[in-house]
Amino acid sequence: MFINQNNHNIFYLYNITSFMTAPKKNRKTIRIIFVSVIVILALAALTSYTMVKGKAITIDSQKYLVLPAGSTLADLENRLVNEFGLKYPKAFHILAQKMNLGKHLRAGRYTLMPGMNNLEIVRHIRSGGLRTTDLVIRGLMSKRDLCNLLGKNLEPDAEDYMYYLSSIDTARLHGFNDSNSLCMVIPDTYNVYWMSNPDDLFKKLYGAYKKYWNETRLQKAKAAGLTPVQVSILASIVDKETSKEDEMATVAGLYINRLKQGIKLQSDPTVKYAIDSPLLKRIYDKHTNFPSPYNTYYVKGLPPGPLCIPSMQSLNAVLNYQEHNYIFMCAKPDFSGYHNFAVTDKEHALNAKRYHDALDRLKASQGQ
Fold first, then answer.
1. What pTM did the predictor assign?
2. Which has fewest Cβ within 10 Å: 19, 124, 171, 271?
């Protein structure tokens, strides 16, 4: 409530004069009326202040307000009420109209904090709020996982990104194909616009890819007999074979030995990928004979694309692979996640028997 200062002075003088000249018996009544008016004005001012500058939303921690393209002031108000527990919607509406918020609404993702008042919310949204976001892309993601991540954190939905990434035209634009387009993605944290369309986003990712593949890394890949795409594919296999960073370079060296000697990679993770059974514990002939270009028991050489977005650690392990003579590996029987490596069939057969015996004992102890 706003009171003109001149009117306020006249009101004040009038009441003082009335009070002084009124008969004594009426002074009490005038005093009560005067005090009541002051109290009403004070309460109105306090209410107005609370509705404008008091805590307006009931969230306990930082939360994002997402406004899609084409959102109206009514859409905004409904989101604030339903998602953030807006306490004074009518006051917010009046304030928003007074500050012409409707004409300044822009699609985006806005950060709202606990304790924000109506005035702070209106100013924040009117200014455009948070226009960029940090997109964290880590290893061990499939194409679908990546697109779901993008759809969750950016304005376009997952299917928009999936369609774009799987498009033949998109792949050719950056020198990839549908099978290996995931090789374009280098794990990192990317600061991107919330409204980034697929074309803009993947141009940014491709820029990071080109930056990663500097002359030094290109020379290392060439020395290993690999292209950048092949490095990513092999790194994805290394990632799936071991989570132990200190043996990744050994695993990478083993597969490079097999590639150079023309031996099938015979990687268990590629079988699991081919038959879509990532949790499979034991590989049998029916699995290794499954016809798929991703089954490296069935085909020679690398699969046509990565099993996942490889981690930075596995990429580095391939580029800096350990030189040795190993061509076999088998999980250790202590189930530590590490592997025993071997040069000959005989050594490998012994390692495999120890591991399978340990599996049988484990199953027996569990009553399986």
1. 0.72
2. 19
